[in-house]
Amino acid sequence: MNLVLQGPRADRAALERIAALAAPARTVVLGEQAIRCEQFGYSLELKQAIELAAHAAQVDATFIAPGRTLADFSLVAMDMDSTLITIECIDEIADMQGLKPQVAAITEAAMRGELDFADSLTRRVALLGGLDASALERVYAERLQISMGGERMLSAVKAAGLKTLLVSGGFTFFTERLQQRLGLDFIHANALEIVDGKLTGRVVGGIVDAAEKQRTVERICAQLGVSPDRAIVMGDGANDLQMMKVAGLSVAFRAKPVVYQQADVALNFSGLDGLLTILAQ
């Protein structure tokens, strides 16, 4: 295994101090705030010690097989809320209704895996009934921001020839605008029902839950003529786990414990472009 250490606030001394725990035969400088350790004696005990030290120093520590690069992959699939973007759109829409605390509590429990996603979404969307649809545009214009490193990551993966998929338990209102803004190849999300300019409190069609996210990744891979192990999947919540498990590389971004404990890569401090550092030659 190689070990990649990176962090937006890490200094070289901190990185080298953590690297010393592995006693690598070779260290490669990947940037001002990233290094790669090669040729060391890997063990579970060493991994746990390094992860503990790295977390204390606000550094992401990634153990990955040597030689893996973007060229090993054909697709990057991303969750939207709290992954590609910094907010949970449904919570911000609910804020326009004066119901953010109630909706956010349900969202948080669903992302931790404590509630069935489809049921929780139905409950949350019902609370939005009667809200003027202009609230969606306000959320997009005033509150939605791309996560740190997101645009740089997307630019690099597209330049490397990978396709991009945004698959979300959120809403098409936002995924469609992000597709145009960021040049994404594929999108899939839930459609909010709007009648006479107001939200009805219902979703049109089937709900994009964990199983549907997995099916979407598999369907797009089949469309591209590649196996799902050619996909990188990035997410943060429990409803992302099924699609992450079929991927060739799973990336937990600012994720809930149930997710980062099962992912191949956890980016707790770095931006989404930390993926590029991990897969650097």
From TrEMBL:
Cofactor(s), names only, from the UniProt record: Mg(2+)
Reaction equations catalysed: O-phospho-D-serine + H2O = D-serine + phosphate; O-phospho-L-serine + H2O = L-serine + phosphate
UniProt-listed Pfam families: Hydrolase
Single GO MF annotation: hydrolase activity
SUPFAM superfamilies, alphabetized: HAD-like
EC number(s) stated in the UniProt entry for this protein: 3.1.3.3
Domain of life: Bacteria
Entry annotated with the keyword Disulfide bond: no
Protein name listed in UniProt: Phosphoserine phosphatase
Source taxonomy: Bacteria, Pseudomonadati, Pseudomonadota, Betaproteobacteria, Burkholderiales
Gene: serB
